[in-house]
Design a protein that fits this description.
alpha/beta; rod-shaped; two-stranded antiparallel ribbon; 5-stranded mixed β-sheet; 159 residues; 7 strands
Length: 159
């Protein structure tokens, strides 16, 4: 038997095994996709819950797009029911029977974030007298910043 020199031993140890085809790791890819899916679902569900598709917003040609730097807002959806000739008020998915009943939740939201605004999404058929009671209630809750949501004919919804 021939003995290997130290140099031959080093060369033998340095040789790499035959290359193996790289495998595509699917499990980490699925994990990342599921995290992204949950993230986008949670963001979109909060916006969907705050808007009410049954409300037909009024048209305003001079509507300005919503400001993206708003620190917080309370969205008040006001639908008009032509059958009963009365309105319905909804805040964060909860219905309120009249304008005075929205004062406590709005006041609590303003106390939690004093620079928050109230966004009123009123149906275009809401009577002025009814809207006036809503605005008085919002003022009694201590709100300093009120915005109305409208639609520009050429663009999508604006706030």
């Amino acid at each position: 038997m021939a003995r290997l020199s130290t140099r031959e031993k080093a060369d033998k140890e340095r040789k790499y095994p035959a290359e193996i085809e790289p495998e595509f790791q699917i499990a980490p890819m699925i994990d990342i996709l599921l995290v992204l899916l949950v993230f986008f679902m949670s963001i979109s569900s909060t916006e969907v819950l705050q808007s009410n598709r049954t409300i037909s917003l009024p048209v305003a040609a001079d509507a300005k797009p919503a400001s993206k730097n708003s620190p917080g807002q309370v969205i008040v959806n006001i639908a008009w029911l032509p059958i009963t000739d009365d309105g319905s008020i909804e805040i964060s998915g909860k219905s309120y029977p009249d304008a005075n009943s929205i004062i406590p939740p709005i006041a609590a939201a303003i106390q939690a974030n004093p620079v928050a605004r109230v966004l009123i999404r009123a149906d275009k058929n809401v009577k002025w007298e009814y809207m006036k009671t809503i605005m008085k209630a919002v003022a009694q809750a201590g709100v300093a910043n009120v915005t109305f949501s409208v639609v520009n004919k050429d663009e999508g919804p604006a706030h």
